[in-house]
Amino acid sequence: MGGLRDTVQHLDVGQNSRNGFLFETHDSAGLLWALQEAMTLHRLPETARNAQIRRIMTESVFRFNPEVMTDHYLALYAKLLKRPMVMSQPNRINGERWGRQSVIIDQETVV
User: Fold this and answer.
1) Do residues 57 and 105 share a domain?
2) What is the pLDDT of residues 14-65, one digit of tens each?
């Protein structure tokens, strides 16, 4: 429960999407509401609850891996600096890393 606003999206079990519990009111009532949302997930039938947990964890592995996060932040810095950044990136051949190459990250890369 909780986290950075750019990483947590309010869970929607019905749509099988998103990953956590966001609350706008940052006080005891807001915390209670978030706990009730978490308990709603916990009270789902075990197979449904486990499917949501598995989906969230699988999506997180891809979304928050170091390479993806590094690329995201470099693109953000390029946008803030209003100029492309040159960085070293691993070459990939058949999915394996072989040496490094220079690439330009520009501000358009930010989603």
Assistant:
1) no
2) 999 999 998 888 899 999 999 999 999 999 999 999 999 999 999 999 888 8
pTM for the structure as a whole = 0.65
The reply to whether 5 and 41 lie within a common domain is yes
Pinpoint the alpha helices (H) of the chain: 28-42, 46-63, 66-81
Same domain? For 24 and 53 the reply is yes
If phi > 0 it is left, if psi is from -120 to 50 it is alpha, else beta; for residue 99 that is left
Helices (H) and strands (E) in the chain, counts: 3, 2
Give the domain extent around 43.
Answer: 1-64
Pairing verdict, β 85-93 and 96-105: antiparallel
Count up the domains in the chain and report the number. 2
